Records
---
Amino acid sequence: MLDWWLPENVSTYGRDIDWLFHLIYWITGLTAILVFATMLVFLVMYRDRPGRRARYTHGNTTLEIVWTVIPSLILVVLTFLSAPAWSRIKIQAPPASDFVVHVTAKQFNWQVTYPGPDGQFGTADDKTLLDEMHVPVNKVVHVHLRSQDVIHSFFVPNFRMKQDAVPGREIVQWFEATKTGKYELPCAELCGFGHSGMRGWIYVHTPADYQKWAAENLRAEAAPAAAEEKKPEEAKPQPAPAKGGAPRVAPRPGGTLPDDSPGVHKLKPAVEQW
């Protein structure tokens, strides 16, 4: 219908959004044509002519009720028509998926974080990319959205997806891309002087291409660590006894000491407040 002037839809729920958009467009378009046509007719009918005097009219109560009730009914109908799509996308729990990424918005870029080889977020092996996200096609993706400073808006026109990132909150948004390609990720909320340059890209790969990318970028450092763990214990140097008969404590990998060694103080982990 009007798809030629919208960005290509490549998401599972984009068709529902487009249908509502087209419906609202036709209603407002026809209303605009009716209003302007009536205005032109009145300009001709009530134009200034010799011997014709202007007169005061209070208006028409019936007509005023009609043009108030009809738009109200249209809004009510649109509300009921849009409720299923809105509920599916925003209110109901996202479809189950094991693919999760964390996105932190900040002036003026997107920080996209993937879990590292351990599969857990919040650990030292997390992988953070700047202004780019990589996902497989036909896979539900959960995006945990945060803001580090001001309100931003995570907007992907081709996915028909838009969600504000609010400081102090973590909001879960989801999408499922249906076509491979490179899609723009701009910020749709005025967030400061560099707002116009806050733009990222989402790369949608085939499953095979995504696995190849993930192996090269997300799990690339797992192999050396695994090889280190496979070294036989007897190959490690044994600590020599200290003076006085007490054994010296061997450092753990990375130079740290066991928590129960003398002189080691346990520190409480820092908790990041959002």
---
Amino acid sequence: MRAAAFLTGLILGSALLAGPLAAQTDKNWDTCIATDGTPDSRLAACTAVIEAKSESGRTLAGAYCIRGHELTERRELDAALADLDEAIRLDPTYACSFNNRGRVYAFKRDYDRAIADYNEALKLNPNMSIAYNNRGDAYFYKRQLDQAIADFSMAIETGPNYAKAYGNRALAYQNAMRDYKRAAADYDAQIKLQPTVMAYLGRGNVHRDAEQLDLAISDYAAVIKMAPTDARGWRNRGMIRLFQGDNKGGFADYTKAVEYDSADVFSWNNRGQAKMRLGDKKGAIADFKKALELRPGLETALTSLKQLGVNP
């Protein structure tokens, strides 16, 4: 799904820790599977396990699987794919490897192959919440929305505390089906479990689309409080403020937005709108020209300049 943000998640966990007990005494193995370690430490430790050539079967497959995951997070997709192919060769009954390889194919936008791997992961482990979530994500990109929502629902059924699945289902309800009531309820659940910037942004967008503007402002304010240098909270709240006629508030928010993301064309354009409403003709012209510098031909900026008597 978009952004963000919102897609997949770590496959580290109980399913991944199912290697032979003998291997768990090894320091490199312990670091390789550690859920509280850093990505770099896991990558190095898993590489050490692989290069030691002392493990085999599920343990060695696990090392390849985790390293493949870490390489995927780095977007080193071909290297990740090679590791996950090897993990599957070593142990074709290991659901983790199929799920993680599915993610690689998804990042490569080969959604049919991704779905095939998620199918295999779920055959091997029918309660693998993350595989349902990831398959739902692939279906979402294929615009097979009923299947996407069904998979996100199964991810929640098999993992009731899986916050990202609530967020992904909310996004499907919101953007694909315009079912704002269900989308808001899912974002409520996600925020209760994991109050992230993306969850508040998502719920704010639902409230915005449902024309519940005060609730939208409240959620964008939460984003600003959590991440004051993230331009998204400022520009989203600024848009609502301008819509409500709060031109000073909109100007202030868009000033923060361009401070933290000077490449966002619409923040410049919308701050220009605020300045024009506030009577700052010179400032408005400068902002509209900046918007056109970033995106030549932007119709709203061209129209506004003509209204100000400027020939673009």
---
Amino acid sequence: MSYESKMFEQFAMPPLKNVEQTLLQVLFNHGGVAREFGSGQEIVDEIADLFKLNGQQRSAYLETIYRQENRLKKSNLWHRLLFRAADSLAKKKMVSRPTQTLQLTKNREWMLTEKGVDEALKYCGIPTARKDHLPTKSYEVQKIVNKLAESRRPLIYDPFDKSKRTVRVTKESLLRARGFRQAVIEAYDCRCAVCGLKLISPDSLSWEVDAVHIVPHNLYGKDDIFNGIAMCHLHHWAFDSGWFAFLDDYNILLSSKAKGLPNDFGKIKDYDFFRTLNGGIVRLNLPKRAEIRPHQDAIRWHRQNIFYDHGKEREHNENY
């Protein structure tokens, strides 16, 4: 038995397999990522609390002598066990190593892979059907997010993806859809571009905000950053229904149909839904990086085909 194993046994540390399982669950609850294990980190103390480790177990150290340098190195025993668990998960392709994640996110973090997410869902008792809407990151999805966020903005943009016309759903198409959702929501800081609402569920497993296709998904709209915008559920529904659209300068254009509605429509106590849109005056809350904002060709298509006010659209086009 190695010195390290003897120390684990001496201090009655939790079995490695149990730590692996708990680490997967906690990583999942922390959005799929965690920094390298060190003192004062929330995740380190959180897992220690789950195992009800005592003071000695948390503070015990391994001592290693470096003979060539004639010095003694001390390593926290609990941190070492966490590293062993993460290293074992990396060998099983359930997490990426910090050196790998660094190249992807510029942060030294352990990150769940798709295989790790699936395993964590099983341990947490969450149906796999919820996977597509979870905010949890995975290494494979993050690759897609990076690719979308770094896409070169075209001068002329076709918002339609003809390859979507094949009905077959593949693993790649599901990953792309999740990558689109994550890229769009992150670009808008998890806020509605119209009203600014930012809200997450009490279990931190779902954001209220949606990643909206400007050219709708069911009409083969592309899953990319130029055809996406973040909106709360209410504004998502109203946008898809044609109650409002965006001008090329990103000001909001309200349908004239709102003028003919009964006085009690669109109101929640003192909140007047249509007055807040205020046709043509309210501007969207957009990403700071202009190159990842919605493409004018996509929002123009929505104005001409979804927006319920084609006469006003023609009037505005004549003024450009």
---
Amino acid sequence: MTQSEPTPQRTFRRMAERFRGYLPVVVDVETGGFDWNKHALLEIAAVPIDLDEQGRFVPGEVCSAHLVPAPGLQIDPKSLEITGIDLDHPFRLAKPEKEALDHVFAAVRAAVKKHDCQRAILVGHNAHFDLNFLNAAVARVAHKRNPFHPFSVFDTVTLAGVAYGQTVLARAMQAAGLQWNSADAHSAVYDAERTAELFCRIANQWGMPVGVTAADVGATNAEAVGKDAGATLAASDGSGETAPVGVPSWVAQDTGSPPSGG
């Protein structure tokens, strides 16, 4: 770039401006049962959501840990049959809860700092299940630097139900036109990475929030940020009515379903 060329202008909002200063971080846990007060936390994976060069949501780098079951907690053998976790596997390299949380939380805090956000907000499929196990582990080890909001979440069950009419993760992925391999499911890393893809697919499909215009992000015109992120969306029925900014065209047109492939 020569001195005479102007600096490229950013035409999208920073992550810190997207969700009131919160950074979405997809979390998946694998556990020894369903009760976070009595069953052990066995695996945790976190995928911070990032932005690409066009300002679209993309999954960031996953950070994960296997955990040593905390003393006094139970493991239901049926849960191990579902997850396929071998607690005695020589390459499991499990960490104590405090060390595992330190490892994952450090990566999350780094992502929060990168995007100038205030805090992370947990994204999950049945998100409160993951959050409850996470909060229980934080309480057990008296962790003082939990980067996540203590009770607010973004749940992809709700998002996928609205976007695709599906609430089961595997079916939602397929409805969104994304890959799913049942043989790899019930691994915290795999499920977190797939849930991150699903969240990004739905969030990108939606566009900018209602009330945000191209001028708000420094674009010179609506084309700079795309028709679905422009000031209005024309209805397809010829009525001349418009839809609010950020509402996908298939919603504005009241088609009842998203375009083929999500």
